[in-house]
Amino acid sequence: MSNPIVKQIKWISALTVLCWSLQVFSQSTADDIAKYREMIADGNPSELYEMAGEELWKKPAGPKNASLEKCNLGLGPGVVDGAAAQLPRYFKDTNRVQDLESRLMTCMQTLQGISSQSIIDAKFGEGPKKDMDAIVAYVVTHSKGKKVQVSTSHPQEKAMYEMGKQAFYYEAGPFDFSCASCHGSDGKRIRLQDLPNLTTRDGAIAGWGSWPAYRVSSGQFWTMQQRLNDCFRQQRFPFPIYGSDVTIALSMYMAKNANGGIIQTPGLKR
Amino acid sequence: MSDPMRIRATEKDGIVDVKILMKHDMESGQRKDASGKLIPAWFINMLNVKAQGKDVFNAEFGPGVSKDPFLNFKYKGSKGDKLVVNWIDTKGDKRTDEATVS
Amino acid sequence: MKFFLSILLTFAWFASPANAQQKPETPFNRMMKDSFRSQGIAGLDRIAQDATQRFCSNPQFAASPAGIKKAEELQKLNMATIAPPSDGQYLGDWKNGEAIAQSGRGYTWSDSASTPNGGGCYNCHQINQKEIAYGNIGPSLWNYGKNRGYSQELVSYTWNRISNSKAYNACSNMPRFAHFKILDQKQIQDVMALLLDPASPVNQ
């Protein structure tokens, strides 16, 4: 064989081996990351929050010196099992659609006499919001492994879903960002962070089903309200009020899109 | 007043697998706060685990151990063993929790 | 009859183009108004939409034949707002450009008004191949100038694109860096150099 052809064959086979090994490398990297995630899932610090939350659920507190054991999260007073999987939902007593955190504020107000405003005003992860983190961890643990089962049969639930969808596509602020800018199609990534497509079932369950979560990089436990808050911050929007209707509407939109998917919360994130 | 640990211990074929989750900020002393000041070091530095009154694990943690540390180790033991875990941190704060091997 | 007429007139008044800027008090608009508060440098005025944002918030309409026509109008509107560099210099210093491309700072409620904004370019684009932490929302810009040549036409196009991407694509995902004063003229000149200076690492 003449020299140039030998050279070409060597070059092509070298390239093939490189491509194949790169593919094997990236596949084995992905496998290793999955293995690592499995390993650390065993020691998810969310469990510490869940333990604290169970105590707070059962401990009498507030001016009324009562526990949260009669709190109705939609399945009856005190029923925690499977409750988070069906939120947000319409509640007759407040005549509105509520997510987990706004509903817990209602319970704290009516059962314990704790003012919602003090919770709304507190900084994330501090004071009354720290207690809220723990109680949320406790409640969502009792829906772990269950399917999202959110209804839009009540007219207010349907309206909330539609407003959530509209909010999802709402472009504003100096960057012209909407939720859809990042979460509106498949395969998008900011830097090295994959973004779930929240308009599809698979993407919605990846997002809705994995928050609240403990973030290893910051050692913080973030509820869904905090995750939404920080999204708006990065979108260069003004501050969404804690438990406000836009946060509930967006939750309704994501949850309904995620219907049938398995809940993984409390999750563990980078 | 420190937060409780989460301890799980299961026995199989004479080996007990112990998993302990501790709640602690574990400040290394190298981090700076928003104003640029160094946050003083504050971390668990001594940890001891006894099973049925006998030492089965001893550790000296340094500033490199992360926040909310997770510990996993094995020892030769049986179901029903009473485990006592205690730690001391650099401020002299202590914490003791118990669990039974299942 | 009078009552019906007044309802009709009210409706017509709201629907008329002169009052298109007036936001009807729909439950949605009320929700957006009531659900936010100002924080730091992020004021409530940010909830108000301009014509481009309003248009792109309705992807179904945007994709329709009427929408496509409207998109062309908006592109022209955006193009008209672009100004060339006041000193006639299109290229600055690519070293600064790289720093600007790397920085995602600015305009959030946790940023101070005095912090220089970054372009956040690596959030969405591959630029210098050496940087592996890049996003894929925008196309790769590796070898930007090398692949396309360094013509004045390309230089002007790139200047316009960074200044106001919606001049070319009404619903582009890219922020309008000059239009909203995210980056100042010197910063844009530096980013331009990162892409179009033959000596920039991006063009090696």
UniProtKB/TrEMBL annotation, chain B:
Xref: SUPFAM superfamilies: E set domains
Taxonomy, superkingdom: Bacteria
InterPro entries the UniProt entry points to: Ig-like_fold, Ig_E-set, SoxZ, SoxZ_dom
Protein name, entry field: Thiosulfate oxidation carrier complex protein SoxZ
Organism: Polynucleobacter paneuropaeus
